[in-house]
Amino acid sequence: MSIRLRLTAWYTAILAVTLIVFGSAVYGVVHYNTYNSVRERLVQQYNKIARTSVVLNSNARTGDYFSFQTPADLTSQTYVQMIDYINNKLTISRNLGDLNINFPYPDYDHAVKQQGFKPVSIQGNPFYLYQGVITESNTGQIIATLQVAIYTGHEVELLTLLRNILVISATIMIIVASSLGLFLARKSMSPIGNVIEAASQIQNGQDLSVRIDYDGPQDEVGQLIDTVNSMLARMEGFYKNLEESYATQRRFVSDASHELRTPLTTIRGNVDLLEKMWSDEEGDRPKLDEATLKQMTREAISDIADESKRMSRLVGDMLSLARADTGRTFDKQPIPLEILVEEVARRAQFLPRQADWITGDFSILNGVYVNGNKDYMQQMLFIFIENAFKYTPEGQVTFDALLYEDQVGIRIADTGIGMDKDEVPYIFDRFYRADQSRGMTEGIGLGLSIAKWIIDELNGSVEVVTRQGEGTTFIIWLPVVFPVPLE
After folding, report:
1. CB 409 within 8 A of CB 403
2. Which residues are CB-neighbours of 471 under 8 A, at least 6 positions away?
3. This prediction's pTM
4. What confidence tens digit (pLDDT) does each residue in 117-134 have?
5. CB 234 within 8 Å of CB 204
């Protein structure tokens, strides 16, 4: 059974129970009040007749000892019947005699037990009867039973009409309510059908751009649809990120394979050359003099060493990026920045370069600490410095620092070849190298990617200002942990 039918069934059942309880309460109140009024009239008439009968009984001298006198205000709808147990005589009122009927009466032994009110029906005519016993005033002996009844045809018709109205109206209300409930449930649940349809489209067609259209109120269904749309948007974002990650991974593997193939080919060629030059088979050995043979051997070994170093750097860089991809980080602690940058500046002057090396005044970093790791921070700075030396064939490379509010900036500026501003968003991608530098400078394009990962781990940022043919400036911004004055 669908949710719509279950909701309709529950609505109908609850409404039916409510109407039954309400109708029963209304009918019960009307029934009680109606017959309570009848009982009050019966008691009044009974008391009048009983008093008259007692007076007659106490003064009687004849055999008509137990006759009763009809009160003057006795209504035509009130009927009286008396059973004389002494003379075994039944006396009835005139209107009851006109109807030619008698009420059922108890025998002497059951007279006391059957006192009170009870409805009776004689020849299809409804009456409400009250009976009580009349006793001898001196001895207390039961001498008669007095029955007073009122015709309740009008009351029965009224209650029957009320019952029919309640039953028919309740039935109509249940039918109408169930129909409207089914309609409203179908309308309310129709957005759920849209959710199911959208989910089916995504499952069958893998189209994560599908969204559920909904212009209704922001009730539970509206909130559900908003949540599903938000979930679909996040899934689409995750899927795109995953596709981009797969594409980056494929490009990474392709570039890594290409970068590794070149040194391996060089090493393999030089090894084959050395094998031929130093082969024991004279036919395979080239005819070279000893000096030339030694010179070529030294060149081949030098090439093998250079390519091995290049492969080592490549493997080390790839391992660093692999650690970054797995979410691994490094231990951090407060690092005195002045000592670190002065050491980097001192060691950087011994790097291979054609440009002039100019360092600024690092005394402004006195007492400035950043939360980081000394080895990784040095690696990050050397990447930027070596990159500046590499792309500055002439001119100068400047290394200095600046403070701004609660951040410290480490600046590496060069007057080298620079780059186009459109290339800036891609310089931190793996294996990316500016077109004008490909083939002109050494490198595999992983250094800046590693530097960017280290900066992100330090909760920092990097600012790039460049102009083609005029140089590039990198500013690494790091948050200051706390200043500690030197003693």
Report:
1. yes
2. 392, 395, 413, 414, 415, 416, 417, 418
3. 0.44
4. 999 988 888 999 999 988
5. no
